[in-house]
Amino acid sequence: MTVKIAIDGPAGAGKSTVAKKLAKLLNYTYIDTGAMYRAITYKAIQEKVNLIEENKIADIAQSADIILEGEKIFLDGKDISEEIRKPGVSEKVSLVSKIPKVREILVQKQRKIAEGKNVVMDGRDIGTVVLPDAQFKFFLTASLEERAKRRYRELKTKNVNVSYYEVLKEIENRDTIDSQRDTSPLKIAEDSIVIDTTYLSEEEVVEKLYNIIKEGLKGEI
């Protein structure tokens, strides 16, 4: 039996960091679906495609060769792990990820990557759309201000010149787009366990999830 773990939540809730650490702890494959949407956004920007040209962006999604290796992401053979985290991509990724055809294409790619493996997959529609049959579904959340603080600190460590207010507005805007899009909106799956991470450290969240999974698998891990 393969085990699928879905971790959803809004921007800055700690999904990726927690998912990476949890996957390492469990020795499972980590799949960062958000990075895949960022890769398509990055390529569209590089090719100077207008983000309202949905068919062109869908073509990019279809033809793009995306490879995930742990925390690294390669697009058409190039390591773009750092580039996709910069503000220019962050500001536009929700516009790309709300395109129905792009979501359809990437969901199929995500499912294919997960086939036959024990995986920890994080994103915004994993428990509801990508892996609806996942044995464990978590929805991580935190206050808007706390999420903005986390993202701001992360960007500053990477020497990205941005203000806290800019990050706050960007996350607020992404929340609106992600929750109101017609295709696969950000929402809590009925069988998800909701965890507010506002006052929890990354380690505390990982431990909480690990213990729930361990109990659910009856000590098989």
Explained architecture:
This protein is an alpha/beta fold. It has one domain (2-202): Rossmann fold (3-Layer(aba) Sandwich). The chain contains ten helices and eight strands. It has a five-stranded parallel sheet, sandwiched between helices. A hairpin with a 2-residue loop joins strand 4 and strand 5. The two termini are 13 Å apart. Belongs to the cytidylate kinase family. Type 1 subfamily. It is found in: Cytoplasm. This is Cytidylate kinase.
Quick gist of this model?
The protein has 221 residues and is α/β, with parallel strands linked by helices.
Topology:
Blueprint: E1 4-8, H1 15-26, E2 29-32, H2 33-46, H3 54-63, E3 66-69, E4 72-75, E5 78-79, H4 87-90, H5 93-97, H6 100-114, E6 119-123, H7 126-130, E7 136-141, H8 144-157, H9 164-180, E8 193-196, H10 202-216
Parallel strand pairs: 1-6, 1-7, 2-6, 7-8
Antiparallel strand pairs: 3-4, 4-5
Helix pairs in contact: 1-10, 3-6, 8-9
Strand order of the largest sheet: 2-6-1-7-8
Mean pLDDT: 94
> What is the end-to-end distance?
13 Å
- Low-confidence stretches are none
Beta fraction of the residues? 15-25%
> What characterizes the major β-sheet?
5 strands, parallel
**Secondary-structure arrangement, i.e. CATH architecture:** 3-Layer(aba) Sandwich
Percentage of residues assigned to helices: 40-55%
Number of helices: 10
The 3D shape can be described as globular
**What's the CATH topology label?**
Rossmann fold
Radius of gyration, Cα only, in angstroms? Answer: 17 Å
Q: Which key features would you list for this structure?
A:
five-stranded parallel beta sheet; Cytidylate_kin; Rossmann fold; 8 strands; three-stranded antiparallel beta sheet; globular; about 15% strand; about 220 residues; about 50% helix; alpha/beta; 10 helices; nucleotide-binding
